[in-house]
Write a structure and sequence with these properties.
By secondary structure, the protein is an alpha/beta fold. It has one domain (6-156, 204-260). It is 45% helix and 12% strand. It is globular and about 55 Å long. The structure holds zinc ion.
Length: 285
């Protein structure tokens, strides 16, 4: 194992299996997973995404009460966690660009301190961050004091679109057509690609969601070689195990067998135009 503390940052679209990868990696004794650190301040303040689990830590406690996160605040001499108001780094735009740049640099400095505190508290040498966001991840990457690496996780655009469509329906969100979702997901993929152009290729592990299930152990062994951690047996189930992670898919709360979810395929077959367009966009990359 390398001496230097390593961050594995999962960059992906939503509904692409980032929680699954994070969960598999968190089973290594060398690794600690924080979930989506991008949403940490939102979970502390109870605003933004996370209302479905009342913005609690995955251990079930609130971010004010969780034992693990309290150790982090203590390490950073933060007596009131509510003073953590921004852990997001977003592209500066328009007339507030200057202020946003300042906020971004504050958030970056805070996140690096949080990462450092977690390494110290856990004695782990690898930290997994599944924030997914491209701009946030690449901003943390540049001039990082850590050995900062990416998993660029991609899933079939049709599967992502259908999964998002179903989730929107379930949570009574505004109805958006499948073609529109497909194009939006393709644009998201392009955005990730553009952001990764400024990242050293040797720092990016490219992973297709579908490939994981062909030979999960091989995928894990490849990751262990790439990131420099010791390999171990792939778990059979996705389950929380004394984790203190922020956000992620709702499915993480129930123990589920790790297997390929092909339910989207029959839905796609019934929509030939969507199916072919998705196929072509996948091929373009
Ligand atoms: Zn917790």
């Amino acid at each position: 194992m390398k001496e230097r503390q390593t961050i594995i940052y999962i960059m992906s679209n939503q509904r692409s299996g980032s929680t699954l990868i994070e969960n598999i990696l968190s089973k290594s004794p060398q690794m600690v997973s924080v979930g989506e650190s991008f949403l940490l301040s939102g979970h502390i303040q109870k605003i933004g995404p996370g209302s479905a689990w009342d913005w609690n830590c995955s251990c079930g406690s609130s971010l004010m009460e969780c034992e693990f996160w309290n150790k982090v605040y203590q390490k950073l001499n933060i007596s009131d966690p509510l003073t953590i108001t921004n852990t997001m780094i977003v592209p500066p735009k328009g007339k507030d660009a200057r202020r946003q740049k300042e906020m971004n640099s504050e958030a970056k400095s805070l996140m690096n301190q949080i990462y450092g505190a977690i390494f110290e508290i856990t004695n782990c040498c690898v930290l997994v961050d599944s924030s997914k966001e491209a701009y946030y991840g690449t901003s943390l990457y540049h001039n990082s004091p850590f050995n900062f690496k990416f998993i660029h996780l991609k899933r079939d655009l049709r599967a992502v679109s259908i999964s998002k469509y179903n989730w929107r329906k379930k949570y009574n969100r505004k109805d958006v057509g499948l073609i529109k979702l497909l194009l939006a997901n393709y644009l998201h993929r392009l955005k990730c690609k553009i952001m990764l152009r400024r990242v050293d290729k040797s720092d990016v592990f490219n992973l297709n969601y579908e490939e994981i299930f062909i030979n999960p152990q091989k995928t894990l062994n490849d990751m262990s070689k790439f990131f420099g951690f010791d390999s171990y047996d792939v778990p059979e189930y996705m389950e929380l195990n004394n984790d203190h992670t922020i956000a992620g898919t709702l499915n993480r709360f129930k123990k589920t067998k790790i297997k390929y979810d092909d339910r989207w395929e029959s839905v796609a077959k019934k929509r030939p135009f969507f199916n072919v367009l998705g196929y072509v966009l996948n091929k373009i990359g």
